[in-house]
Amino acid sequence: MAGAARTTAPTSRKPAFSAFSQQQLWARRPALTPALTAKLMISIGVACFAVGAAIFNTANDLRTLVKRYDDAATCASGFFPTSAEQAMQMSFNGAGTTCTVTLTAKSNMNKPVYVYYELSNFFQNHRAFVRDLDYFQLMGKPSQGLCTTHEKTSAGAEISPCGVQAWSFFNDSYAVAVNGAATTIDSANIAWKSDLKYKLGDYAPTNMNTDQATRGGGQITGNVDTDEDFATWMRTAALSKFRKLVGVINADIAKGDTITFTIQNRYNTYKFNGEKAVVLATNSWIGGRNLVFPACYFLAGSLCSGLGAVGVFLHIFGDKFKSESTNEWSTRL
User: What residue ranges are annotated as transmembrane (predicted)?
Assistant: First the structure.
């Protein structure tokens, strides 16, 4: 009929027939019988025990020496030169004290031997600490005003880098001697390469901890992206007790050797009841000495083995219990 509207057949929304569209792909659906469950759990348990034993043997060979020094008489005495500074727990000139502490190696420590400083009761993980920095300024770009504290000196000059993280930069320093012979602490390559390349910019710091009235910790040596101690400090710790790498001693330390640290004790932890310590440690493919790690594997292995034993029990005696239960219900019905 002329002029009549043409009608078109509706487009089909039916998917093409295939094993995929009809959810008919081949699949394996193993039944988790007690026997199969027992095999899987025992296999996982054996694997956990094997890995745990390997980690335990490695961790047990690692050695760690720790010596607290902030409470040593030679370190604490004279840290606050005047009674006014002692009362406020503040050191105006920040000179600190020079002191020595001695450790004795209880066993052989094969090179490389890592040197750390350890701080306690210092909350780098606090929200106010973590947020108080300007990432743009830290990378050498124009400041975006992200710092909430320590932005300017008492005279109004801009501080770069700003914020409490940079302001609190740890500034104790260490020299070490083994059996009276001076030993070098190699502080090269202690920071993450990604931090030096992407987090820190190539520029000289300005007014950072140079003003006595607003000074916190230490000053940056050289440009911001070349001071690896500063880069290490700016990688915030997760816990209130933490260690940060100072450097590496590339020499073996024998059992019974005397290790003497000469410390420039400048960092004020007395005001917040913090603690400072020097740490010597050896590392391996699992990191430092940590016996909790293998203990977790042993625990997991024990749990899996226990479940496997339950599976074996059900496989052997399950039919008996099932038949007794069926007979009991049949009698009741």
Answer: 40-59, 291-317
Residue with tokens 């296999």: 43
Question: Is the domain of 52 the same as that of 141?
Answer: no
- Tell me: pLDDT of 332 over 80: no
| Calpha distance 289→8 (Å, rounded) | 77
Which contacts (CB < 8 Å, 24+ apart) does range 217-223 have?
A: 217/167, 217/168, 217/169, 217/170, 217/171, 217/267, 218/169, 218/170, 218/171, 218/266, 218/267, 219/169, 219/171, 220/169
Cβ burial of 28 (10 Å; 0-12, 13-18, 19+) is: exposed
Within-domain flag for 248: yes
Secondary element (H or E) of residue 85: helix 83-88
> Is residue 201 domain-shared with residue 260, that is, in the same domain?
yes
Could you tell me the pTM of the whole model? 0.80
Q: What residue type is 324 in one-letter code? A: E
Give strand pairing partners of 295.
none
- Residue 16 has a pLDDT of 77
- Residue 234 CA to residue 217 CA, distance in Å, equals 13
Which pLDDT tens digit goes with each residue over 13-26?
A: 777 778 787 778 88
Number of domain units in the chain? 2
What are the CB-based long-range contacts (under 8 Å, 24+) for 130-137?
130/165, 130/236, 132/163, 132/164, 132/165, 133/161, 133/162, 133/163, 133/164, 133/165, 133/166, 133/234, 134/161, 134/162, 134/163, 135/199, 137/161, 137/162
**CB neighbours of residue 81 within 10 Å:** 13
Q: What is the 3-state secondary structure (H, E, C) of 115-181?
A: EEEEEECCCCCCHHHHHCCCHHHHCCCCCCCCCCCCCECCCCCECECCCHHHHCCCCCEEEEEECCE
